[in-house]
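--- STAGE predict ---
source: upstream dedup step, 1 unique chain passed
mode: sequence only
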Amino acid sequence: MEHVPPPAEELARLDRELAELDARRAQLLTRRAWLLAALRPPAPTAAPGWNPSAWGAPPPGRPGAPAQPWGYVPKQPSAPRSAQNVLLTLGGLLLTVAAVAFTLVSWGSMGIGGRSAVLAAVTLGALIAPAMLLRRGLAATAEALAALALVLTLLDVYAVHAVAAPGTDGLGFTAVASAVLAVLWTAYGLALGKLRLPLPAAVVLAQWPLLFWAWAAGAPALVVGWALLATAVLDGVIALWGKGPGVRVTACVGGSAMGFSALMVGLALSTTASGPLGAAAPGALLLAAAAAALAGAWRAPKGFARTGGVVAGLAAVAAVGGVPAAALSDGWRVLAYLLCGLALAGVVRVGLPRDAARGVLAASGVVVAGALVWALPSLAAVLLGPVTLLSDVWAGPPEGFRSALGSTLPWSELAAAPVVLALVAGLLGSAYRWWPSVVRIAAPLGAREETPKPDAASATAGTPGAARTAPAGAGAPWYTVGGAGARRRPSGAALRGAAGAGASALGWGALLLAGVVLDVPYAVAVAGETALVGGLLALAVRSAGGGRGASAVPVTALVGAVSGAVSVGLLSLASEGAAYAVFGALTVLFAGAAVRVGAEVPRAVFAVASVVWGTVLTGFAGRSLALDPHEAAPLVLLVPALTVLLGARLRRNPVALPVELAGALGALVAVGLAVSDAPFLALVLALCGVLAAGAAVRPERRPVAGYLAAALFVLATWVRLAASEVSFPEAYTLPVTVPALVVGVARRRRDPEASSWTAYGPGLAATLLPSLAVAWTDTDWLRPLLLGVATLVITLLGARYRLQALLVLGGVVLALDGLHELAPYVAQVAGALPRWLPPALAGLLLLVVGATYEQRLRDARRLKDALGRMR
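--- STAGE serialize ---
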């Protein structure tokens, strides 16, 4: 009897069999596709250029194109030129290596005839092949063979010297060979004009004949310099009239290297000459180099013309200045070069091209800047040298200015430094004084370049394009031309202001250096520096507010006055009388300048400086009275007290705030002096609090000065308590809490809607929290009792007046304080109870809370709402 399964079981079996069949079918289809691909014959190569449209198919690569018929292979693209260049380079390199190996290794195994035949055949073939390849349009291959031919010619020269003329001088033979090769490769490059390698190679070869000839002849350094210069001149000619950018760039690089070398040779010989006659010959070389550079600048493009002008100017200064410099001592040589550099400014009267003349003027500026760089370190030594007096204040006046500086500079070799500064300062001052004449003289150099004419379309249509190409500032000085370029160039007023600023700064430095070089007495040096500070202050006061262009003069005078005041103040520390005289004079001078000046910023600077000098005077008074630093601290507060009174007098004047901040800085110094003694520190802090409270009387200072005064008073109280060895925390916190609560009450009266946390929270927390922390570690009963009573009162007040801060803070602290008091008894009771009772009670509590959870939740919400309605 056949078994028939239930329908559900039979359905599941059928589903499994169908899934197995689907998987097997997918496997068979995959195998079938692989077999079809393996049995498909390879596609034969079709003729290039075969047109697929003959088969009725679109060209390959188009989207949606059907599969191409068998027998079609698309035409392969040609190899890129980069691959061709790589192949040609590698081929030329291998041939070169082979030629070198043949020359060095296999040359000696052949006879003289074979050698000559091989050299002639290979070199001639390498030279002829590029011409044939150029006719067939294979320029890259021709370049590769030309490079091989160049290497072969060099190897030929080596081989000829090694075999045919081994006894000749190597340097002389190299000079002749390089000249011959330069001529040959020049002719070869001109004959095959399409090749780019021969002519630059000829330029490279032309660098060496004269140099190697001079070297081989054992010529002196001057002759070598002339050889280098002649080569540089040849390179300049090639750079101007050469054929192709490669030739010109190579000639520029070679000429720059050779010309620089010639200049270095001439400069070294000129600076080391034993006398004017010895410096004349190197000077001639440098002058010739200057003439060559200027001739090149005459025809060179804009950038190169300016560079040529700079080189020409510097070479001329080195040539002319080196002759008198050779007769001077080391300390005065810089003056000779400076005078020659300043003489270059006469180029504005010579008919040089504009760019070349600008380059010569730039060279003049470089010479002047170099002279200033040489002189300024000595000025820095004069300004910073008195810092050494800080280690031994009032030790006694030194004999002279130099001994007060403590510097080891060779002042005898720096005798020309003040002359250099004075000379440049005089020229800048003259330019500042007669600026219109300077502008008129320099106008030809400031003429703008000719602008291109508008194109025909814009000219005929009358569009704004023509207006854009018009010379917007033709005829105007270069520093006032409108347009985009004018935004990058300074105005004439700014340049004049810079000249005036430089004149004032350098003139001040020249006078300082003159005092050191002459080693004037100490008293004269102190008086002179103080007088210079007064002069700078007068200049700053007179020039302030003179316009934007002239702002550099008062700013420079201001910076110089402050720097000079610091320097002379340090210098005066050697003597007690000098210190009082100098700082008293500085206080008066800067205060007078603050009163007389009209601009706000200089007035604030002068006023602050006057406050600083006055603070230093009060410190001197404490030292003269033989007071300890902490004892002199209250005396230092005299100047901050005066600044508070002065601020009340000035009110909202912009100078008031800087003056008061300077006074606050003096108060901070007083606090620092009193740190070593706690009672004096408390006194100083209290006095500072009084000054801050005085400033807080003014409404504009109250937001900051009021809080500062409160903090200083509290800090003074704490320091005084600590000095008296008071350890109760309430003594420290109650002086904070009481004023804070008073302020909170006043705040609530003005603004009843203010939060109690803002009004009373900080004051209450300042006492309650530290007292609670101490009460938890206190074994006595008095502090917890007093804290509990106080917090109970605070909690009742919070509930009575519905103040959230009082209720929460008082309740929490009261609960914690009570818990602390009950803790011993709870521990004692817990120890007497059975061990099973605490868990049972906890479980019972949880059951009760769980059974009445909804009611407890409603109670918590009512409590939250009640607290939220409080302030």
